[in-house]
Amino acid sequence: MPNKSEPSETILIIGGTREAADLARELIAAKPEARIITSLAGRTKEPAPLAGEVRTGGFGGIEGLARYIEDNAVTRLIDATHPFARQISANAIEAAKIAGVPLDIRTRKPWEEQRGDNWIEVDTLEAARDAIPPRARVLLALGSQYIGLFASRDDVHFVVRMIDKPDEPLALPDHALVLGRPGDTAAAETMLLIAHSISHIVCRNSGGRAAYAKIEAARELGLPVIMIGRGD
Ligand code: NAP
User: H/E/C letters for each residue in the chain?
Assistant: First the structure.
């Protein structure tokens, strides 16, 4: 039996998503005696505030994660990472086995094309780049690490939205930078698409509600979405 100073259970949420933040809040409300820790990779300079404890930075591979679980007497591991964050999810499976703790996998399901959507589905970033028609005006809704691949499209105007201002200017020849988080509503995203005269969106099929507003906005405006599937 744990004594009064020890938590009844310790749950480690591997996070970095809005769903992980929601889950931390729900678990704290449902289990006030438990220790709830969210782990962030540390990619975002100013992450949104999180309920409970937060730890930041890589664990040092499978062994590092297994060691962290053991050192902190973690009793349950939850993978609530982004569906494209494959390495940490693979590490979580192995580390949970080594440390002998149960693992809950809560990664999101992909979005499905709805009536009124106009998706051009591709498997890779390269295929997405090549699917953009000449002289298009594209909302490039991708992480900064994927932007460079589109630099060869000097015939296209890109609008790039980022949470943090990049340290270096973007490599894209013709672009506008919008700083901020994605809009919560289709109306907010529609305004952005209209303001920049966007003709196409390029994004990955992340699933979940946080990034879905731009898909709804594209549907309302009848814009094509070049959708990169999870095969990438
Ligand atoms: P990744 O390729 O799967 O992970 C690469 C390495 O980063 C991992 O091996 C791990 O380092 C570290 N890492 C990743 N997520 C971590 C976390 N939550 N806590 C501690 N270390 C973590 O991951 P990624 O695609 O770069 O994504 C990084 C984070 O951003 C994830 O938390 C993810 O949920 C979030 N995110 C990703 C995307 C995306 O498109 N990939 C989009 C939105 C949010 P060690 O091996 O040293 O432990």
Answer: CCCCCCCCCEEEEECCCHHHHHHHHHHHHHCCCCEEEEEECCCCCCCCCCCCEEEECCCCHHHHHHHHHHHCCCCEEEECCCCCCHHHHHHHHHHHHHHCCCEEECCCCCCCCCCCCCEEEECCHHHHHHHCCCCCEEEEECCHHHHHHHCCCCCCEEEEEECCCCCCCCCCCCEEEEECCCCCCHHHHHHHHHHCCCCEEEEECCCCCCCCHHHHHHHHHCCCEEEECCCC
- Tell whether 195 and 218 lie within a shared domain: yes
Together in a domain, 98 and 148: no
Domain that holds residue 151: 119-228
CATH for 149: 3.40.50.720
- Give residue 4's pLDDT: 52
| Residue 231: per-residue pLDDT | 64
- Specify whether 141 is located in the same domain as 183: yes
Instruction: Show the low-confidence residues of the chain (pLDDT under 50).
Output: 1-2, 232
Residue 206 CA, ligand 1 centroid: distance in Å: 14
Nearest atom in ligand 1 to 39's CA:
19
Of 81, 161, 162, which is best to mutate to test ligand 1, by the most ligand atoms within 8 angstroms of its C-beta?
A: 81
> Quick check: CB of 39 below 6 Å from ligand 1?
yes
Cβ of 38 closer than 6 Å to ligand 1, yes or no, is no
pLDDT of residue 142: 93
Q: In the prediction, which pLDDT does 64 show?
A: 98
**Residue 59 Cα: closest atom of ligand 1:** 48
